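Before surveying the methods themselves, we first show a specimen of the format, giving the amino acid sequence and backbone structure tokens:

:::
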Amino acid sequence: MRSITHITSVAVGVMLTMTTLLAHSDDAQNSSVQTTIVNPPTLYDPAPNGYSHAVVATGGSKLAFIAGQGGEDAHGALAPDFEGQLRQAYANLFAALDAVGAEPHHVTRITTYVVEYDQSKLGLMTEVVTAAFGDSLPAQTLVPVSRLAIDGMLFEVDAIAVID
């Protein structure tokens, strides 16, 4: 078993050698929040699946915890299919992020919940998350579930962001 000190030194070494600092807009370049994606060479490359293994955020002064956002529009109506709910959920997520002053590059972690998940949904999910975050892919966990809070709800995403 490795010691915590050894793991920490390996993690620091990986961060120093495998780091990509992200800046995707003028606002991001002027931001005091810097996010560093860490994908250790001993793990597979997760980017083709739309996420990063770890994200380190520095310089922020507050955290925002965004509740699970589903595929409901402003009137509470669910999109009729998985793709519609997926796209609406990310639109809702970005509306919530905007409301707290966060931008996509501030998001360090998301958790997605998918009803009746199967591998065929992964491609579309990857397409949407990559379009949403670009190269600033947050750490992500996908959780297959039997149901969500509302009948007919097929997808939900929550987030943690570090804000200036």
